[in-house]
Amino acid sequence: MDHAAFLELVQEGAGLDREAAERLTRATLETLAEHLARGEADDLAAELPPELAAWLHTTTAAEGFDLDEFLRRVSERAGTDLAVAERGARAVFTALAHAASPKELADIAAELGRSYGRLLARGPFGLAPTAGEFETKVAERTSLD
Q1: DSSP code of 128?
Q2: CA–CA separation, 92 and 21 (whole Å)
């Protein structure tokens, strides 16, 4: 997938114009780079077009912040409100699901954790429930203990 096709997916997924899609893509990838371990950011960058890969470059250690902080940083970087930042970030992660390998997507989802489920709910990013969560859901639906 090339840079233009990636941005088109973000643009369509978030209902943005081209300029806003690019701003939010950059903001999301730069913020993701701050959250991920440097090696993981490099692994993802290796699977993306060079224009996008540059936004994942980092020389600092992973910060590991929560989803609210992630969205606040994206919003600040993109110069938009939190709702648009979340919609844009979700579209970026959806585009990543088309551009990166399933293994890389699973690595990113594992590093981000469950709190990011709102952004990762679509495609290969979806996180499977734990055994306990699965058991609870089955018990609730079947009225069994």
Answers
A1: P
A2: 9
- Model pLDDT for residues 57-69, shown as the tens digit of each residue: 988 888 989 999 9
User: Residues 21, 14: contact at Cβ < 8 Å?
Assistant: yes
SS (H, E, C) 90-120: HHHHHHHHHHCCHHHHHHHHHHHCHHHHHHH
Rounded distance, CA 89 to CA 92, Å?
Answer: 5
Distance of CA 101 to the CA centre of its chain: 14
Q: What is the pLDDT of residues 93-138, one digit of tens each?
A: 999 999 999 899 889 988 998 889 888 855 444 445 556 666 777 8
Which candidate, 29, 120, 36, 7, places its Cα nearest to that of 77? Answer: 29
Q: Please state at what angle helix 82-99 crosses helix 3-14, rounded to 10 degrees.
A: 140
